[in-house]
Amino acid sequence: MSILVDKNTRVICQGITGSGGGAFHTKGCLDYGTQMVGGTSPGKGGTKDANGLPVFDTVEQAVHATGANATMIFVPPPFAADAICEAAAAGIKLIVAITEGIPVLDMVKAKNFLAGFGDSVTLVGPNCPGVITPGQCKIGIMPGYIHQPPAPGKKSVGIVSRSGTLTYEAVWQTSQMGWAQSTCVGIGGDPVKGMDFVDVVAQFQNDPGTDAIIIIGEIGGTAEEAAAKFVQAHVTKPVAGFIAGRTAPPGKRMGHAGAIISGGEGTAESKIAAMRTAGIVVADSPADMGRALVKAAQR
Amino acid sequence: MKIHEYQARDLLSRAGIPVPPAAVVETAAAARDAFIKNGLPVQVIKAQVFAGGRGKAGFVRLVKSADEAHSAAEFMLTHRMVSVQTGPEGIAVKKILIAAAVDIAHEYYVGLVLDRAQSGVTLMASAQGGVEIETVAEKDPSAIIRHTLHPSMGLMPFAARNVALGMGLSGRTASVTADILMKLSKFFVQYDCSIAEINPLVLTKSGEIMAIDAKLNFDDNAMFRHPELQAMRDDTETDPLEIRAAAANLNYIKLDGDIACLVNGAGLAMSTMDVIGLHGGKPANFLDVGGGVKKEGAIEAFRILLSDKKVRGILVNIFGGIARCDLIAEALIQAGKEVGFGVPVVVRLEGTNVEKAREMLAAARHDLPTLQSATDLNDAAKKIVAAAA
């Protein structure tokens, strides 16, 4: 079992012919075994991409012709918010926006547009590595081979993170310790985004294929604090965590647009304290996320 | 992106928000002339720098004559300003704002900020202005009115009137303030701000409402559609290494420690700093080379790290996904040949093409005499902290 994506997920890539990563990562997803069924590139409708997948002018055409229910967006920042809205309007259920650098106010408007579709549309990202259910479906830029698909006798962890490379780190460590991953979700580093920790953790709690959860946060905002409260009230599975940015100076943007401490809010200390209060095993070092998971699972 | 106070005043004034008359000068003589031209008995002289702590450093002064204006300006233009935010070497002042001092009856706070929790823009207002809003939020949260703008309608006039009345204003001043709130909200959206704050917004003794000081920050992601703001960019207070890194598409922030790090991914880069700290070291920088880094970019990254003379060791931490370990190894070897690593280097590689990278590094041992390998991130941090001690 898994959340969000599985072997039946039919995926298109918006920006499939672009140099922004669409062409390169469409191939990566295909190689992993994802059901990539086509893509869009305005003005190139009717052609095929380098992998022989059909290219459409619009998402609506792509959905009509391929039955796609998920999309992976690599459209450049100035047009990416529109691409998100286009996907929702065309009936796509899961939108994974990889694009980094979308103007925040564009995302404010796009989120408002998506709200009109209620629960029928889920957005992951933007500025995220994507979603992977090992062995079944990879939508995004993560290296597939580090993941372990669930197998008999193996426990499976669900991982949710604001950071791409830290997710890979956690996947690697848990794989090394003999765990599989049910699904890994990179929710992205932007301040205004789709799914947040709480949304993903709620799905992991309800997923019979997920035995434990890792939450990887970073400085800025209060989403980790909210997740800690949610875990305390609603989650019965073991939870481990890590927070990046203990040594980050206030007021500076640490790579991610969302990773900035302002007005004393969003510090690593406040997040770690909230998580520990909720019974989450928080690793002090990013090298110890796997061990923190094992410790949480033994409680 | 940030702009100077005088630029913010200018932008707000053009947006129709009342500000006291002022001039920007670059010489003491021009400050004297501006004092006379403004024609007001009391004026304020402020150094135009990004660093805070101007008041305490003596770089904001009230002046009551043209001579005082001249000498205050001369002082600021010939002395480097040293404050808690500048470091001991201080910063040079090039521009000075000279503005009318107004007779203040009351100070208010109004500000718009990007609000993650609401996924929107939230207007905050308070009758307790002139101090940092964070301080008010801590001491008396009920003194702050909050209103989240509609994502497509923006601030609506009725909401602006409600907020102005909630600030304790009435009659004509409430209407004028509501109008200022409308203009500030439109400005926020039009210019892709992340913060647009007027503090204080004052009621003068003659009954006027005016913006005395403003803080405007802009969304870096939206700068592509604001050439007029890009033209205002002033990098004179930015670290030269940060400017150089930006030109090479590297995400680099200089810090004050002595252990440099080179990492792919923002979250991993932050964590690498943390793990250096955890093992008793102090990070010299944040550096995310990014997933799409090319060999030339990676070499430039090593050059930048090595040109920080405080650096006593370098930790390379790569989890190859999109970024390939062999490419980083190649850059490391090239940088070793070209500039030479006079300091210890600890390398921790994992992920895509890691075996090839390890072979390359092993074969290049003679070019990289200070290189050590690490098995994981804890091991890497321990080794570099020990080697740099």
Low-confidence stretches of chain B: none
User: Could you tell me how far the N terminus lies from the C terminus of chain A, measured between alpha carbons in angstroms?
Assistant: 24 Å
The chain pair forming the largest interface, with residue counts per chain, is: A-B, 61 and 56 residues
- H/E element order of chain A: EHEEHEHEHEEEEHEHEHEHEH
Report the sheet with the most strands of chain B, covering strand number, pairing sense and barrel closure: 6 strands, antiparallel
Average pLDDT level of chain B: 90
Structure class of chain A: alpha/beta
Number of helices of chain A: 9
Mean pLDDT, all residues of chain A: 93
Q: Compute the CA-based radius of gyration of chain A.
A: 18 Å
Element-by-element helix/strand order of chain B = HEHEHEHEEEHEHHEEEHHEEHEHEHEHEH
Oligomer: heterodimer
Which value, in Å, is the CA radius of gyration of chain B? 26 Å
The SS-based structural class of chain B is alpha+beta
